[in-house]
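Notes from the 1:1 (GR / supervisor)

We went over the backlog. Supervisor wanted to see one worked example end to end before approving the batch request, so GR pasted a single chain during the call. The sequence is below; no edits were made to it. Supervisor asked that the structure be written out right there so they could see what the output format looks like.
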Amino acid sequence: MLAKAALDPGSSALHHELLNTTKGQTQYSVYYPASAGKTTIGDLFMTFKEQHDATLIGMDTGNGLEINPKLNVEVSPNSQLFYIADERIHDFNW
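Structure output shown during the call:
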């Protein structure tokens, strides 16, 4: 993404912010628990934003990372979810 962002003047500023270790938003990941059942990216996207002011940006179901998946994509238990937030979220209410 860094190499691609270099082609777009505004994107480089975004990546600078995400890579800054002393302030601002950071990318984190969490595993969707097996006990939570199936859901969709859209449902989780809204939950992340409404409950944690975080943005869901990708998912890995074990078949490779998918960035910016469609909202209707199902999220299977044990999928790794990637999100951007001010700090790591420890209290997900799945």
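Supervisor's comment: Residues 22 and 55 are 20 Å apart (CA to CA).
Batch request approved.
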